Amino acid sequence: SVPPGWTYEHDMELGHFLYDHSEKKLQCVDCTKEHINSIEVSSQTEDCVAAHLTDNLTYTFWESSGLPGQHWVRLNMKKGVIVKRLWLTLDGQSSSYVPRRVAVYGGTLSRLQHLRTVLINENSYQNVCILRDMKTHMPVLEIRFLECRDQGYNVRLQGIKIVSFWEWDLILNADMFQPARLVRYPLLEGVDADVLYRRAVLIQRFVQLLEGVLCYLIPLSEDSIGTFNALR
């Protein structure tokens, strides 16, 4: 049952609370091999292949082979992974192979959306963060290299690094709803911790169920505002 006096706004605030407290304490460790299913590239040379992007070796590289502006790296993420930080490890020894302008796209492969365009500082010679603090899971992240330094034709990367967490990396318990944690959530202050816990469990179950059927519900009908409002 709905707690007495509980409103939609309470659910929204509880949802924000759960998101803010769902991330494990992240350390600066590379989650690439644990959280990425596979990596695709636009092209590669015989000795500098895509596998070198994740081998953690300082003397190996991935290098593209083709026309400028047509190079990309595609990360196929494991289900439920949310990216906290995405870095490129540059090869600063060869200036013309260093990317100058990079665009990041995310979503499903058939519907990639622009997330960010980064102009890489000329003084950057090692790790460059090109994406941070994603809020939702992206099945695919695609890094497009729009321009290289010194009008270079191809891209060379020493590697990529990711810090990420699982979408439901949250173990719910009543102890997490301590008053000190609720000071930034005024609608939740004063609500019994057991009530908040039971409501949080309900929200979590609902989201897991919705995720399982969402692919059958959206898109319901193109340009159908009424249908979408009914679902909402």
From TrEMBL:
Signal peptide: none annotated. Keywords: Ligase. PROSITE patterns: DOC. One of its GO terms (biological process) is proteasome-mediated ubiquitin-dependent protein catabolic process. The gene is Hectd3_3. Gene3D superfamilies: Galactose-binding domain-like. Residues 9-189 form the DOC domain. One of its GO terms (molecular function) is ubiquitin-protein transferase activity. This is HECD3 ligase.
